[in-house]
Amino acid sequence: MGDFIGHVCPGLFLVLYGLYRAIVVSRAVIFNDSLLHPSHNPKNRGRWARLWQLAHIGWLKTVTGSLLIVYEINCIEGGLKFMSKGMPPKFMYPKEWQHLTMFTLLTLDGCVETVSKSVLRQRWVTLERGSTVLGVYVLLLLLVSHVKDSSGVELQVHSLLVLVVFLLMLVLTAELWAPEMFHLWMIETFLFLVMGSWLIQAGFILFRPVSGFPWEDDDISDIMFVTTFFCWHVMINALCLLGIYGISSFWHHCYSPSLRLMGSKEALYHDSSSGTFYRLLQDTEQQDKDDQALVPSKSSPTDRA
Fold this sequence. Notes:
By secondary structure, the chain is mostly helical. It is 75% helix and 0% strand. It contains ten helices and no strands. α1 (4-31) runs antiparallel to α3 (56-74) and α7 crosses α8. The termini are far apart. Residues 41-52, 259-278 and 297-305 have low confidence and may be disordered.
């Protein structure tokens, strides 16, 4: 899948996934909510609310990975063969098999997330995070060997991608011991955005240059500008993440003030399996309403006197 579509499609998926995570993490930070068990409006228990709680991201990973697998197999004329028929036999299409392994891991990660959220009686968060970490570990190993026969501009492009995946691996590994730390989730979201946007940029650099002329491997200026473009991607994605947080904060504080109270009630409810705090909060509110209703009746005889 070493072509323009093979870089742009996975990159577009990662960008959309990063934007979704940016919205989710921003909401969790604003409401001081749980990242793994976000609260929901107790009044919204209808069919659409149930549909929204399904593992839509898991389904998206599964469908995207499956489509990329089909595309990878159909890109090769004569089929994706494992070994040649000559003597001695040799392995064939090493990069394509690496691509196929990456997309298979993405599909399996989506299946694990879907089963954990929608099939199991109790969600297994450790299994979800473990499958994602395993996929990133394997992705890093494949990318390191993927650039063995690269040089010049292509080597620089993929080396920067390896750097992002390595940092993402460290963050995901740290999240196994600190799954509810907002800082790690923000960094993870930022790295997904950078990886996705850089994959899209790599498709244009390697296969469809904007100028219409291919980049030259023996020109040091082209190699230096690859790193410059990568730094621009880092800054743009950081500003995008900051903008999403700012817009989400402005929206929730100005247009949805009632959501903050709802989120705090749901947080109290999730802290206790029996819902004791939530029922206590309801009883307190009802008692306040009764006291307010009794105040005019007690003061009326004095007013008449």
